[in-house]
What does this fold into?
Amino acid sequence: MPEPHTLAISEIFGSAQGEGSRCGVPSIFIRLAGCRVRCPYCDTRKAWSDGKAMTIDEIAGEVLRLRKRSPQSQIVLTGGEPLEQDVTDLVAYLRQKKFFIAIETSGLYFRDLPIDWWTVSPKDVAGFRIHPRVIPEMDEVKLIVNRNLTLAVIRRITRRAAEIPVFLQPQFFNRSKYRQTLRFFEEIQQAGIKNVRLGFQLQALYGIR
Ligand code: SF4
It folds into this structure.
């Protein structure tokens, strides 16, 4: 008998989406382990290496248990970098169960999957590269504000994704980083670049995950 297909999972938990256009939507987060991007400011470092091998049946059991408590939940595939693993079977299962499926990815990898909502967060350490096949899928972009995020980068990204919102996220959630983000937001407005929005984290306000 062949071994059942497993995925390395960091954690599965219920909460609400805290960022972006779908902020506040009840969500079941499936955090896949592993990420080769290695951002120095990563707030999910434990997901780089602590994955537990789980079969689709085991993941399904946990997801359905959480859905009983919050039946309207969407699924958020996150990481780590969720597209470093082959999530084809997992996505097929979630579709069959009629979940709305969102993904949070760096945009470096593409898999042709029936995902409803793509949040793409291109990273400075990867030169803000986005896989060309990810670009038409994108529903929103999230960018961490630091010294590597320049007006030229914002222009390049908004040119490739003209009609979708681009959220600016502070690198850390403290006053000085919020101020830095606000200053950059004002520069962007003065430069006449469209569709850029100030972002925040609902989970920091509510003290949830
Ligand atoms: S891409 Fe995301 S998960 Fe990976 S290191 Fe950067 S912030 Fe962390």
